[in-house]
Design goal:
About 35% of the residues lie in helices and about 20% in strands. By secondary structure, it is of the alpha/beta class. The strands form 6 sheets. Strands 4-3-5-6-7-8-9 form a 7-stranded mixed sheet, with helices on both faces. It has a 5-stranded antiparallel sheet with strand order 11-10-12-13-14, with no helix packed on it. A 4-stranded mixed sheet has the order 19-18-17-21, with no helix packed on it. Strand 17 (about 385-390) and strand 18 form a beta hairpin. The protein is globular, with a radius of gyration of 23 Å.
Amino acid sequence: MFPWLSRNLILPLHEKLLGRRTFPLLEELQGTVLTPERLAELQRERLKSLFRHCRENIPWWNSRLRGAPDGDEITDSRAALSGIPILKRSEIRESLEEMRWRNPPVKVIKHTSSGTTDDNLLFYCGRERQTWNRVMRQRALARIGFQVGDPVVHLWPDFPEDTFTDRAKASLRVWRDWLVDDREFDLRPFDPAHFEKALQVLFRCRRCLIFSYPSWVARLLDYWNRTRPGLPFHTNCVVYCSGEVLHEAQRRQFQEEFGVPVYEEYGSQETGAIANEDEHHVLRLNAEHILVEILRDGRPVAPGELGEVVVTNLTATLMPFIRYATGDVARQPEHPEFPLDGDRLPRFPKVEGRTSDLLLSAKSQLLPSRPLVDALMTVVNLRWFHLHQSSPMELEIHALTRDQSKRDAAERVVTNYLGRDLRIGWRTGDAFSPLRSGKHRYVCSPPAARQIAHDKRIDDELARAWPQPVVASPSN
């Protein structure tokens, strides 16, 4: 509605009333020139403060940090972390109440993640953690030309609230979002009425930011092309993807059909924004509040090797996340300590997806699924499919097409990548069994996850290992 008013009055007042120092912190970070020495000092001092807080206020963490250095003994942040056990999701489920700050002098916020695999996690966070997450995103958006208060359209799931108080808060958020032109649309169950409602808002915007899962953008474009064949989809919007892997074939499609740049954010609801793309599409690590390790079996992998992303949030005090195994996978960069990139934040590698998004070759070699998914999209022209691998020698392709030529082409692409001895099954249907999050899984390989995940409780009883099979008719 009024970007200047939102930016200079409504949103600063809103954040202050909620106890979030978002705007002062954003101004501070934008005015700070980082040097390698300054970054190392910031990380070291914040880690010291976090360790001290854990030892004084949270017995569970005090016990876990036994043997870790304290105070002035911490001279290197990464070395200080190296002896602390990896924090797993199964541990959080078992010890949720014990590992948080009891009776803190701040508001306690209970939150549930909405992961790609529906392996949702209940956790606690405070205003400080929220503040840093908002600031990291706003700083990233400023790099691509979007300021606080500019119109935003979120294509995002809206889960119903359980209590009267929560429903009342949700109603107030709707009014707030209307006032600052920050709209949210749940496209589920992906029917014409929901698509048309979102399209009407997008085409009324002179310029806006579309924040969405990549698969939801793909669904919107599919609907557009199906209902308006030959009509170009050009809006003055920028697409910002989060919550799923953005495949290069998807990025190219979105850029060509929207006629605008497409950017990506990587993070988790538990630990906040980890890395954001800059104007050159380079992921930049938000290193002032996050320490990242890429590990396998608790040890750093060699540069170029695949490992699990393990995160320490330096600003989460209500419920600390120290050496948290995110369940995501990336390649170790040339410099595992993530140094500054000249006068810019550290580069961060492309995330390959969840641990179960990897694949095993017929010889049990761990492989990223990105190249295979992109090849199926571009070479075979399969837009919607799901690969479920039950063993290194067996893989089932779920697809919406019964075209024999596409089946033959898909099987050739898969065997060229994973091995010619691979046994391939083929299932077709009208739609995919929906995940609660509304996301789409292109790959699910429990045996690959077992090889690389720190949390070994990966089995068919956990949602992280669930496939997304085709079904006879759409349901949601």
